[in-house]
Amino acid sequence: MFWRNRAVVVVIYFIALHSVNGKTPKSRLRRSWIMPGTLWCGVGSIAENFTSLGVFPGVDHCCREHDQCSPYIQALEFKYGIRNYRLHTISHCDCDQRFRKCLHTLNDTVSTLVGIMFFNILEMPCFSLREEEQCVEWTWWGNCKSNGTVPQAEIHKPEIFNYSMSEDSHTSASILHHKDGQRKDSSSHTFNLISPSSLANNMKSRRRRLKKLQRKTAKINRPSTLKVKTE
């Protein structure tokens, strides 16, 4: 059920973006890979220049900084000893961590949606770099002439995006200053996303506790039943 819900969310998201009068011109197809209301959140960007931001400037700023963060490996590119066979760029784990912090700082509806889509539904991986000694220069006959240390990438799965939503936060524009020049603060409630494995473990422990309770109840009721029969 968990994986089915994730698939449904992704399908609905892309159907909503593509279903406009049954036509998809090139410009509209390009926009369809960008989250509505933003210029940088998606595959590539549709911004006219670097300073341009969309309707939700807060979350667009996070996406722009993540797009510009390096190092990264582009789609189908061979770099740092691995080939990225995905159709999207993968970033260094430090870049993804900064992106996660930026979305957590916004803590509103749009930033939460972007975080859930990026980390939980699409499960965008990241990579770390480690130094490894390899041959850096070869002779004409294919023998190693000199060794050296080169950076090697290692792919990591993303962590679950745990989020907290403020009661008075609705859009990414809410992180901007209000008319009186002050920011609005409110108490927040935290909702932790539960993985299917932990949910199954919780159900098993509940079943065990229920069985123990049933056995105890049966032991308590058994003597009283015997007394009634002897009388």
TrEMBL record:
Q: Where is the signal peptide?
A: 1-22
Q: Where is this region: Disordered?
A: 211-231
Q: Keywords for this entry?
A: Calcium, Disulfide bond, Hydrolase, Lipid metabolism, Metal-binding, Secreted, Signal
Give compartment(s): Secreted
Gene Ontology terms, MF aspect: metal ion binding; phospholipase A2 activity
A GO cellular-component term linked to this record: extracellular region
**Start and end of every Phospholipase A2-like central domain?**
34-129
What the entry lists under CDD domains is as follows:
PLA2_bee_venom_like
Key word Kinase present:
no
Q: What class of enzyme is it?
A: hydrolase
Cofactor(s) needed by this chain: Ca(2+)
Question: What EC number is given for this enzyme?
Answer: 3.1.1.4
GO BP annotation list: arachidonate secretion; phospholipid metabolic process
What is this protein's record name? phospholipase A2
